[in-house]
Amino acid sequence: MDIRKAGLDDIETLTELRLAYLRERAPGLSATAAKSIAERCRDFFRRRLPANGLVAMLGEADGQAVSTAFMVLSERPANPDCPDGRVGVIMNVYTHPAHRRRGHSTAVVSRIVDEARAMGISALDLLAAGAAALLYEKVGFEPAGYSAMRMRLRGKEAPRQSASTPLCGTGGMTDRFLAREKRRCGRS
Hints:
alpha+beta
C-alpha cells in the first residue's frame, strides 16, 4: 500500500471515504442526510486543506484509495502537557472492509503522527471506539485520563447506540482506563 498526503484534487475521494466511515457508524444514515454531509465535507476540505487546518492521509492499493485518516489542527491555551497549545485531533480513521486486517489503518495513523511531529505539534488527541483502542495504543497513544462528553446544541438527536458500538466516544479505552485507575487507587 502506498500512503500519501491528500490535496485539493482528492476532495471527492475524501468525501466518499468520510461517508463510508459514517455509514458504518450510523447504518440508518438517510440519503438526504448523506447528501447534506457530503456538501459540508467538500466545503470543509476546500477551506481547511490549503490553510493547514487539516492533514489527510490516503492509503492506496492497486490505484484505489482504501484507507484514510484525518488530523484536524487546533490551538488551545498553553499548558504543561501542551506548551505551545497546538493540538492535532485524529479522526475518521477508516479502511475499506475488503482491505482490513492488513495494517492499513496503523500505517495511515503512523504517517499522520510523523506529519504532526514534523509540524511541531505538541499533542495528538483522538476518540477510540472499542477495539480500535488497541491500534492506537500500538502506535503510542495512551488513555488521557478523562472521558469524552458531548452536549448537542443543534440538530436532531442522534439515534441511540448500543454500548458496544458508540458513534462518538472512547468506548473500551475509557473502560480500561477506569479499571486501571480503580486498581491504582485500591478500589475494585
